[in-house]
Amino acid sequence: MIKVLFVDDHEMVRIGVSAFLSSQPDIEIVGEADNGKKAVEMALNLRPDIILMDLVMPEMDGIEATKKIIQEWPEAKIIIVTSFLDDEKVYPALEAGAASYMLKTSKANEIANAIRATYYGQSVLEPEVTNKMMAKMRKKEKRLPHEELTNREMEVLLLMAQGKTNQEIADELFIALKTVKVHVSNILSKLGVQDRTQAVIYAFKHSLVK
């Protein structure tokens, strides 16, 4: 039997999903929690095979609860089951240590299969999550060096292209000379060039200077 701890702050969701999972011949619900804090306590006490974790909950959200569980029990297998597909939820949850990520719009049997797959060491991602991650990876691969510059670094680069010295840049931007030097160093590093001249050439080559 695959022992499951189900964490969700909506009682009706817990009742419905628990009823279906309990009807499976190889899955047993060994505990339920309605907030992240309780989830951490129960996970560390019960040591279930799988933890189904909601994200938005009172007292402690699912991401923080996942972090705390993984810190204390690195072998824990956590499946995020949520309604959220936005980046600020997906990536932090996976970085926190979640093994799989499913949406509440998934069919009940898909959740059950995700439990089985995760139990046997696989990572299951909702197709929409996979597509989102692939799109982000492709976008990141296509980024040009200057796209990594901060707004302030871009300002400094454009002033460099105007032939201004570090002191003149500091005076125009109302920042310390030391700060300008740090920005210049960061710019050279991010653009992969050796000196100011090469940085300025890069700026003109990529039409950054109007």
TrEMBL record:
CDD domains: LuxR_C_like, REC_NarL-like. SUPFAM superfamilies: C-terminal effector domain of the bipartite response regulators, CheY-like. The modification 4-aspartylphosphate is found at residue 54. This is LuxR family two component transcriptional regulator. It comes from the Bacteria. One of its GO terms (biological process) is phosphorelay signal transduction system. GO terms for molecular function: DNA binding. Residues 3-119 form the Response regulatory domain. It comes from Paranoxybacillus vitaminiphilus. Pfam families: GerE (PF00196), Response_reg (PF00072). Residues 142-207 form the HTH luxR-type domain. Keywords: DNA-binding, Phosphoprotein, Transcription, Transcription regulation.
